[in-house]
Structure formats: structure tokens, C-alpha cells
Amino acid sequence: MNLPESSQVQFTPDMRICRILNGMWQVSGAHGSIDPEKAISSMFTYYDSGFITWDLADIYGPAEDFVGEFRRKLASARGAEALSNLQAFTKWVPQPGPITRRMVEESIALSLRRMNTETLDLLQFHWWDYQNNNYLNALNYLSELSDEGKIRHLGLTNFDTEHLQIFTDHGIKLVSNQVQFSLIDRRPEVNMIPYCKEHDIQLLTYGTLCGGLLSEKYLGQSEPRGYELNTASLGKYKQMIDAWGGWSLFQELLITLKRIATKHGVSIANVGTRYIIDRPTVAGVIVGVRLGVTDHREDNTRVFNFKLDSEDHELIEAVLGKSRDLYQLIGDCGDEYR
Ligand SMILES: NC(=O)c1ccc[n+]([C@@H]2O[C@H](COP(=O)([O-])OP(=O)(O)OC[C@H]3O[C@@H](n4cnc5c(N)ncnc54)[C@H](OP(=O)(O)O)[C@@H]3O)[C@@H](O)[C@H]2O)c1
């Protein structure tokens, strides 16, 4: 199983990435027990199949340490050159409050140490509270660290379009914003995509598979109760489905996606991923991986074997047209966190 050339995109002039990124929130707890040894050996299988790009965060439990250990093992088994074919995108998620240059330096130094690298490929900045405008200081200090070579590229996560504009107006160079984007949650279409298009900012998306709900496993199933949603991710996106239109409309969507999937010889998850990967400004879809627990690499490879046609889009639109407008209900990207 190897991913085709079309699975990659030139993310920045110096970096090609896999358009399906491996999401590491799933190693941070509340997604089943993760055995570190098994997890790191399974990181080799992702790397060897072409899934070479990882999404993580300082707050995702051992994720940065796993990347550090994987980098050490990869370099020792395959030589240091093997590291150039691997990207690890982390996040800095500070508590809102006064931000000093020293705090930023120490946080980035910690991530560098944990990840066993001299430069972070991409640092995605998250901020919980817009009322506290120290986020601008934080970004200015991060830009300085980027100029000094500690951070290769600077991105954001969960910022809305209004704040993205504030940063670009301040001359801060941002390559990406990471946001929730799926067939259920299409809020980025309203303001985010048009703004990103105009300012050459790319989107990395999460929640695209709704924690696994967007799959054959839930097709034809009765509405799961709270205790049956046994990962934090399933719980999070079930709430999103409830707000969007509820379980019976979701079943209607799954039936439609299955029809499309069968036509192309792929899975429901493949259709959900392909739909988002093809949206303007989307560089990649992050798919959560439960390392050493489950493995969907083989199925996810098929995302790059087919295209959705106009008939498929019409069928999908006919169902999505019946849903509530999450932009009206929640607001712009990331507003659910504030
Ligand atoms: N910036 C943020 O605020 C934020 C928030 C959430 C997530 N994220 C990032 O996005 C990543 C994705 O996490 P997510 O919570 O949004 O989950 P997700 O990617 O929507 O769902 C992941 C789950 O989908 C299932 N799956 C994957 N491929 C499949 C396939 N081909 N067929 C059927 N099921 C499949 C697996 O479930 P099973 O393991 O049960 O089989 C997997 O654990 C996170 O790890 C993190 O890196 C970022």
C-alpha cells in the first residue's frame, strides 16, 4: 500500500506534505489506551505508506514526545536524510494572560526538545479568549522566533476570519489556519475560504470524518447513546450533528454518501474526505489516528483514486440543503471554543 504522487501538495515553497495528515489528539487520552511502543512502531507504518505529515499540539499528552522518539528511531534506522521526508505540525495553546518574549521562547524551546528537532516545521497558534488581546504580542514574538529559525512557518488554529484579517493587516505572515470543516460543518465556506483565497492562506481541516461517525459503521444504526460514544471525538461531533439537523437527517446523508461511494468503489469516509480536500484553499484533511488501536490507512489511500462528479455534488446538496445553518447558529470558525 503506497500513496500516489497526487496525495501530496506543495504546502510552502520548501515543504511538500501529505494531503491526509495523521491527527494525534487521539493519543492524549479519552480515545482508548495507547501503548507508546506500539504507537511508535505504527508511526513507521504510516511513514512507509506515504502518510508522512503529522498534526499534534503541546497539549496532546505525549504526542510531541512520540514525534521526538519516532524521529530518533527513524534517523537511527534509516539515516538522518529520512527525516527530511517527514513533517510534524505542532500547536502552542497558552493560557490567556500577559505574554512575554521569555514565555514564548521557553514554550517553543520545550516543543523543540520534546520533538527532538532544531526547527518546528509549522507552529499553529491557538488563543482561547478574544477579549484578551495579548494574542497580538504572542504572534509578534512567534514571528521573531520564526525569523531566528526556530519555527519554519507560522499558522493558526481556530481563529475566525475577523482575527485573521487583524493579523494580516499587522503584516504577520501566516501560511495556514486549522479549522473544523466537514459535510456537517461547512462554516468555512462563508467568510474563511474567500479571505484565505485572497491572502494565500491554506486550510488544514479537522472533524472531517466526525470522529468516525461519517462511515459505514453508523449507516442504518439507531441513534447512539452517550455511553456508546466511547471516544471524546465521537462525543464532540455527535453534538455537532445534533445542532446541524439530528440523527435521522444524518442517516439520510449516510445513505446518499453510500450510494456515491458504491458507484466509485470507495467508502463513505473516502467521499467525506474527498469532498473537503477538493474545496478551495484546503491543503489537507487531518484524520485522527488511534495508533496501535485501529488502522484505516488502506481505506484512506482510496481518497486519491477517484473524483466526485456533478451528479454526486447534486445528490449531496439535496441532503445538506435540509440542514440548519451552523454559521447562523454558532458563528464563524472556532467560535465554538469561545
Ligand atoms: N485544532 C483543533 O481544535 C482540533 C480539534 C479536533 C481535532 N484536531 C486535529 O484533528 C485530528 C482529527 O481528529 P478528529 O477528532 O477531528 O477526528 P476525525 O478525524 O474526524 O475522526 C477520526 C476517527 O475516524 C475514524 N476513521 C478514520 N478513517 C476512517 C475510515 N477510512 N473509515 C472509517 N472510519 C475512519 C477512526 O475511528 P476509529 O479509531 O474508532 O476506527 C478515527 O479514530 C486530531 O487528531 C487533531 O490532530 C484539531
Keywords:
alpha/beta, 10 strands, 40% helix, eight-stranded parallel beta barrel, binds NADP nicotinamide-adenine-dinucleotide phosphate, single chain, two-stranded antiparallel sheet, 338 residues
Describe what this molecule looks like in 3D.
It contains twelve helices and ten strands. It has helices at residues 36-49, 63-78, 101-114, 135-147, 161-169, 192-199, 232-244, 247-264, 268-277, 297-301, 310-320, 326-330, and strands at 8-12, 15-18, 20-23, 53-55, 87-92, 120-125, 151-157, 176-180, 202-206, 282-288. Helix 1 (36-49) packs across helix 2, helix 8 crosses helix 9 and helix 8 (247-264) runs antiparallel to helix 11 (310-320). The radius of gyration is 19 Å and the shape is globular. It starts with 7 loop residues before the first strand and ends in an 8-residue tail after the last helix. The relative contact order is 0.15. Bound molecules: NADP nicotinamide-adenine-dinucleotide phosphate (NAP).
